[in-house]
Design brief:
Length: about 350
Amino acid sequence: MQYTVCTARRLRRLAILAATLLTTAATAGGTHPAFVPDVKDTAAAGWTKAPEAKPETIRFAVIGDRTGLARPGVFEQAVKQADGLRPEFVINVGDLIEGYTSDAGELAREWQHIDAAIAATKTPFFFVAGNHDIGNQLMLDYWREKRGEPYYAFTWKGALFLVLDTEDPPVDMPGDYAAQFHTLAKAMQTDPKGTEAKLHEVLAGVNASRGSGESDPAMKAMEGARFSEKQVAWALDVLARHKNARWTFVLMHKPAWTLNSAEFTRIETALGTRGYTVIAGHNHYYKQETRNGRDYLTMGTAGAVSHQHGPGEMDHLAWITVDDAGPAISLLKLNGILDRNGESGQTLAK
């Protein structure tokens, strides 16, 4: 009996000591109260209200198209700028490489350049497939080998992120157009301003033809948003399983809601009355639309050449914060995100 009592006392002392050590370790590790005013009377204080710790708040950045026809260095610096803002993650809306190639070596080199730019940052990076990224079967196979299926979903702090593939299946660029495109892409590396000026001359003619109802059938086949039945069934299943998500973000490359896509209409209908935001790219021009009382955003560029002039012609990222009130969206121009030296590092951004 004496042995039992002594043993019990010893165990209690060890438990107290362990608790003390744990408390000390927690304090040393930086566990602090959220807000501690160093004044006795807070009835009259130098602040409007105490700041609150909100661990459930989500903060992420969205970056637009780098291609087609990338202005050198704009995207590469953009990911560094986003990294400096310390979002929880960055997501791109597609078109990171010039693509449209059947040369496996060239395809690998283009992706190695992108991978190196992203690896230079610490922020998690999420990919969305664009038409330049998976413009043919070779490119789709490469994507799947490196990143799995181009459409996927995840949840973060109760929010659902549904990433769609608007190139399902991919449609390759006609050979004569591809040759002209790659010539321009190479010229952009040595004379970006002159090449962009030439491109705008070409685009003026193309836009005039479209305005009059003319369209090249081969190019028109590339312009639509395509979703396989397998992808649609998958998306409907994801939405059904996450019907109580605190908010839903739908990300894709081409703005399918503007392209008469019956398949996307089925996905959009399945979103129902939940809170959601749809974000795309592709058009190289920022535009906000309201559909069903929800924000539909088409991102501007992060290095790609703009296809039209106006207030939406800009290199930028979207900073999105999600709290109990839903998402707050701010646009940050790349040439306005400055480091501690007052420099953006952007020489070609608009």
